Automatic annotation (TrEMBL), chain A:
Signal peptide: none annotated. It is found in: Membrane. This is Cell division protein FtsW. It comes from the Bacteria. It comes from Streptomyces fodineus. Pfam families: FTSW_RODA_SPOVE. One of its GO terms (cellular component) is cell division site. It is a multi-pass membrane protein. One of its GO terms (biological process) is regulation of cell shape.
């Protein structure tokens, strides 16, 4: 479904001798239309299930989502015409579906409407996406600001310590009625820093230094700064009791180190450190200890006569969905309680869309991650490669940590499902990640056109 | 570096596979385990997500459903709750179900597979069928007459159609409104506590779940045993009975309220309720025949369901002769529910045949289509038909000229037996007033109703309590309601 205008425009430019890649912007547009239609369909399905009528806001919701998606598409068309056409439609679909799920859960909590705020944040996220795509002409620009990024990241991470804890975790700051989770933004900044540092020092890390047993250790001068940064960020997060994010940073660090150096030993050391850390934290920190107990014995509170906890409620929700689900608006995942719209949003998807819907959602994330890795593979310079791998890994790890947590695969750590969960900082950050991936993939595919990225 | 990127990508694929496999485990392989966990509220939410089916008296529902808009959406409501409480029981979100609400719960809540058009369909769709209805055998006018007659005094009434065993009235007093227990809020909790601590025990179903010493009404059973065993062959022949009667093997002397009981014939002893004559008759019949006859009437039957269970009435078969003498006049260990005594009257009225009493005429789908009818209920020959005929004669005499005159109905043949049961330590409690009877309209071929009434009125003057005075008028009103104008 390539638009006539584009083909004509492409035909008018004199083609270079080298192999030309199709830009596929028409495919992207078609998929975006499909994503918006699917979201509107879900919105209507909720209304039909709950009241028997199409909800009055359906047209407005569809139009709003459609306009946002089209603006983002236009920005991509102008500034990143070679970008992979799957990123944007998947992001639109996940964000649209997230809005539907939150709107659906809002029906159960008349005094706490989260969907309108989420729509505002989504708009901001798309705005940031457009800004990044338009302003950031070349991702390599970020390499120059690596140390600015890491300073900002540490600052953002440390900021919530000054604010009171919410639900046991000190990771929010409240401003003018909005709560922001600075750790969310920090992860992109940290990914940029890791990528830049490892790209610059990967040879030193891989080959220099002493050999101990079968491991090749780099010199402290090279390893020191990055380990310090990493320990600092994880330490701050442990102080703030944000386990999910510390796990994410740890995973991100290990993956990037491995990809940059190719040393399997790093993974072994990483896992060893992780185990030591996990055992120490699990022993010392009652909050974490409780999470692990809940994971091992999800029904312990039921047997103790205290009623089901959040995790068992979540498992009940998934089980109630079965293969095909109860249908949007017809489940009872609100029984999970206060985190139903945020950490546990996946339980609503599992109950109302079933295993089929859940698998589809996981595959959408997988496609997003795979396309990110593919962009990294296609690039020739190490910073871009590591940046793409880092951003894709953030998504993959986050989906695994929270998805595995709510389905009882691993201990639960509070985290937001990218695009789906309620949470402004999260949505904005994920749009920024997608914007960077689009930028990287544009460069990756552009280079095959015989032109270097501008 | 490309190689390591591929490795990282493969690692992510591994994570994805783990997520999918685990999701399949939770949602498919082990889903039944989670669905059936008692802490999972979904089954309860589904159960109350649709209006509950109705319990009908005649063509009219005596129940309803209220949409509360809450998570457990529909609550039970009752029209005339206290009147029908011993039949319907309650259907409470907090405290479960009782009586017909319990026995018919599968149909009323829509979970019974028989309601589903296709087997397994509901299992697949996770939906319930529309709820069905339960139609009772009750006679509205008789039920109201009984409730009005008791007028809040402690007591109970049971009425049966002798030819079928259909229960026409089942009243317990004082009663309560089961609607107070329907929901699950604070009001329900406090109503539950209040009803359970009420010394009047309004939630006790006195008609089927409470046994009383039947007193003189048990003389119907003793007379049947004596006639069947051939101990008495002529109703008008003098019996060899002293007054007072010294209980065998003891020095205790049994006396009578009435005069002229010495050597009285069965007819006059029955008419004037001579304790001495019947105590001796029971001893003469012997414990084996007495308990056989009692068992045939339904005593010591622990399996009676109407369809909810009925407290077993008792006649103790392990007694000495003195105890047998007392048992034979409805004292000692002899105890009966009002329903049991109505069964006794019904067996006499229907040529000695007894049919198991039942309350459910049929169950229907929500559109009125019948799922199951009451079907044939087993018949038991309790006594010889000739014995039943003679007992009918005796009971008719009681109403015509004996202690049961106040049960008489113009234009109908009525038979009855009064009873005043002593109870408490040293007979200190206020006695229970009993009346059992049956009635047959003059233009009818067979008796249409058998009734048992018990009034336990602690506040009444002891001398005034008698089956004839307190209980007979209630029985008369119930019978008149069944016979019609």
């Amino acid at each position: 479904m390539t638009k006539a205008g584009t083909t004509v425009a492409a035909a008018q430019t004199p083609a270079p001798a080298v192999r030309r890649l199709p830009r596929r912007r028409g495919v992207e547009l078609a998929l975006i239309v499909l994503a918006v239609l699917l979201s509107v369909y879900g919105y209507c399905a909720v209304g039909l299930a709950r009241t028997g009528t199409v909800p009055p806001g359906a047209v407005g919701y569809g139009a709003g989502l459609g306009v946002l998606a089209l603006l983002a598409h236009m920005a991509v068309r102008i500034r990143a015409p070679y970008a992979d056409p799957l990123f944007l439609p998947i992001a639109v679909l996940l964000n649209g579906l997230g809005l539907v799920l939150i709107y659906r859960l809002d029906r159960e909590t008349p005094n706490d409407q989260a969907a309108p705020a989420q729509l505002v944040w989504s708009t901001l996220g798309v705005g940031l996406f457009i800004a990044v795509v338009l302003v950031l002409r070349d991702h390599r620009l970020l390499q120059r600001y690596a140390y600015v990024c890491v300073a900002a990241a540490l600052g953002l991470l440390a900021l919530p310590i000054l604010f009171p804890a919410v639900n046991g975790a000190r990771i929010w700051i409240r401003l003018a009625g909005f709560s922001i989770q600075p750790g969310e933004f920090a992860k992109v900044l940290l990914a940029v820093f890791f990528a830049a540092y490892l790209a610059a020092n990967r040879n030193a890390l891989a080959y220099a230094g002493r050999r101990l047993w079968w491991l090749q250790f780099p010199t402290g001068r090279v390893l020191g700064p990055i380990v310090t940064i990493w320990l600092l960020s994880v330490g701050v997060l442990v102080l703030e009791r944000d386990l999910g994010t510390s796990l994410l940073f740890f995973g991100l660090f290990v993956v990037l180190l491995y990809v940059a150096t190719g040393r399997t030993g790093w993974i072994a050391v990483g896992l060893l450190l992780a185990m030591l850390g996990a055992v120490a934290v699990g022993r010392l920190e009652p909050h974490v200890n409780q999470r692990i107990e809940d994971w091992l014995h999800p029904f312990a509170t039921i047997e103790a006569g205290q009623g089901p906890n959040q995790l068992s409620q979540s498992l009940f929700a998934f089980a109630a969905g079965g293969v095909l689900g109860t249908g949007l608006g017809l489940g009872h995942s609100i029984l999970i309680g206060f985190a139903a719209k945020s950490d546990f949003i996946l339980a609503t998807a599992g109950e109302e869309l079933g295993l089929a819907g859940l698998a589809a959602i996981f595959l959408l994330y997988a496609l997003l991650v795979e396309r990110g890795y593919r962009a990294g593979l296609a690039l020739r310079e190490p910073f871009g490669r590591l940046l793409a791998v880092g951003l894709a890994s953030i998504l993959a790890l986050q989906v695994f940590v929270i998805g595995g947590g709510v389905t009882g695969l691993i201990p639960l750590t509070g985290m937001a499902m990218p695009f789906l969960a309620q949470g402004g900082s999260s949505v904005v950050t994920n749009w920024a990640i997608v914007a960077l991936l689009i930028r990287v993939s544009d460069s990756a595919r552009h280079q095959y056109d015989g032109q270097e990225a501008p | 570096m490309a190689r390591y990127i591929r490795h990282a990508c493969a690692f992510c694929a591994l994570l994805l596979a783990a997520l999918l496999a685990n999701a399949a485990r939770v949602q498919v392989v082990q889903s039944r385990l989670y669905d059936d966990n008692p802490a999972n509220r979904r089954a309860t939410i589904a159960r109350y997500g649709q209006p509950r089916g109705d319990i009908l008296v005649g063509d009219e529902p005596v129940t309803g459903s209220v949409d509360t808009g809450e998570q457990l959406r529909f609550e039970r409501s009752y029209r005339n709750g206290p009147l029908y409480a011993p039949v319907t029981g309650f259907a409470s979100q907090a405290y479960g179900t009782t009586f017909l609400e319990h026995a018919g719960d599968g149909v009323l809540s829509g979970t019974d597979p028989v309601l589903s058009p296709l087997p397994l369909w509901n299992d697949m769709t996770h939906r319930l069928s529309p709820a069905g209805n339960v139609v009772t055998t009750l006679n509205r006018a008789a039920q109201q007459a009984a409730y009005r007659g008791l007028a809040g005094r402690k007591g109970a009434v049971a009425a049966i159609e002798p030819a079928t065993g259909r229960i026409l009235a089942l009243v317990s007093s004082p009663s309560y409104d089961p609607g107070e227990l329907s929901g699950n809020g604070e009001a329900v909790t406090s109503a539950w506590a209040r009803l359970n601590h009420d010394p009047e025990k309004p939630m006790l179903n006195r008609a089927v779940r409470q046994t009383y010493p039947p007193g003189s009404t048990f003389k119907v059973v003793t007379a049947a045993a004596a006639l069947d065993a051939g101990v008495v062959t002529d109703l008008d022949a003098r019996t060899d009975s002293p007054d007072p009667y010294r209980l065998p093997g003891t020095t205790t002397r049994l006396t009578n309220e009435a005069d002229d009981c010495r050597d009285a014939s069965l007819r006059s002893a029955f008419e004037w309720s001579c304790n001495t004559v019947f105590a001796k008759l029971g001893v003469d019949v012997g414990v084996r025949d007495m308990s056989a006859t009692a068992r045939a009437f339904g005593f010591n039957d622990t399996r009676l369901r109407i369809p909810y269970s009925v407290a077993p009435s008792t006649f103790d078969p392990r007694v000495d002769r003195a105890q047998l003498a007392l048992s034979s006049i409805g004292q000692f260990n002899t105890r009966a529910t009002p329903l049991q005594m109505a069964m006794v009257a019904a067996a006499v009225a229907d040529r000695g045949q007894l049919r198991s009493p039942y309350l459910v005429e049929r169950t229907t789908r929500h559109n009125g289509e019948t799922i199951a009818g009451s079907g044939a209920h087993p018949v038991r020959q309790v006594m010889n038909p000739s014995t039943a005929t003679r007992l009918k004669e005796l009971m008719t005499d009681v109403v015509r000229e004996g202690t049961g005159k106040r049960a008489a109905i113009p234009g109908a043949l009525v038979g009855g037996k009064t009873g005043t049961a002593q109870h408490g330590v040293g007979n200190s409690g206020a006695p229970y007033a009993w009346f059992v009877s049956w009635a047959q309209a003059d233009n009818s071929l067979e008796p249409q109703v058998a009734v048992a009434v018990v009034v336990e009125d602690a506040s009444a003057n002891r001398g005034e309590i008698s089956g004839g005075g307190n209980a007979a008028p209630i029985a008369r009103d119930v019978m008149r309601a069944v016979l019609g104008p």
